[in-house]
Amino acid sequence: MNTFDCVIVGAGPAGLSAGLTLGRARRYIAVMDNGTNRNRVTQQSHGYLTRDGITPQAFKEAGVNELKNYPSVSYFHTTVTGIRKEFGGERMIVRTMDDETFYTEKVILATGVQEEFPFPSVREFYGKSLFSCPYCDGWEMKDQPLIIIADKEEHTMHMARLIYNWSSDLIVATNGVELSKDCAQELKERKIIIKTEPIKSLNGHNGYLEKIEFKTGETISRSGGFVVPSFYRPNQFAKHLGCEIDEDGTVATDGAGRTTSKNVYIAGETEKSASSSLIISAADGQKAAVSVNTDITLERF
Ligand SMILES: Cc1cc2nc3c(=O)[nH]c(=O)nc-3n(C[C@H](O)[C@H](O)[C@H](O)COP(=O)(O)OP(=O)(O)OC[C@H]3O[C@@H](n4cnc5c(N)ncnc54)[C@H](O)[C@@H]3O)c2cc1C
Question: Beta 230-232 vs 264-266: how paired, if at all?
Fold first, then answer.
């Protein structure tokens, strides 16, 4: 029978860490993942203690392999298409794209987020020479001629100030947005070039940026840079399960992964619908798993 104590949707660091904790706690769990983790486009992950420089694929494989040590854990490569409560929320039905049905007492949503870029061609370079997280990839880009692409002044200024310590050879491109006098002055004092004209195209080879062409016809050479995407949840599970979601898009929790909807827990980037990091997401996953195990323990003891 496909009946579990907990189904974990998503096997990024949040879901895998939750799975490991619940497997070690001898809970019957299913971990489901469809391989759409947003970091799959990059070659190396950095900053995860003891795993600095590991590929995203090797990280995921290592996490899935660790789950195999625990016989009460099942792993499914599949897409969850729907989660529905029944019996007043005492049980949930999880459906997958292969038309399989799973029954579970509790669910941890760990489905991450996805990015939307100021213009689609960023995708071609994202993860190889254009990045969004300086803590993840700033070191590799140090002292290079970089571009910062952001179309809101607060984002432009935040990125410029932050990236400056990795490389002072900076051009900021606002893609048509004018900066205030004070901000423009702050950048000019540091010899950061400002381009407010709209971008026509990004050009390079195999994901490595070489040139940016503006609609004015001007072209500049850059070997990479940082973009500020917006982030969104790739599904509506939290909403459909009745979780309270704040105005800023954050799913309300008790700080330990419990949502306001009974038996529904959340971990990793999908909670705030914003970017974080592998290590923070893994920690979130363990927190949510401890909440699940504590609740099951108190309910059944
Ligand atoms: C280009 C790039 C480089 C990065 N580099 C670093 C770095 O160097 N260091 C660092 O710490 N962080 C890095 N990050 C950020 C890091 O990848 C995230 O912070 C982290 O992966 C978030 O973990 P998560 O578990 O919340 O979500 P994810 O890792 O995104 O995992 C979510 C999982 O849910 C699954 N999923 C989604 N919907 C469904 C569904 N309906 N059914 C089944 N499965 C589903 C997906 O397949 C995915 O595997 C980088 C991100 C990007 C984009």
Answer: unpaired
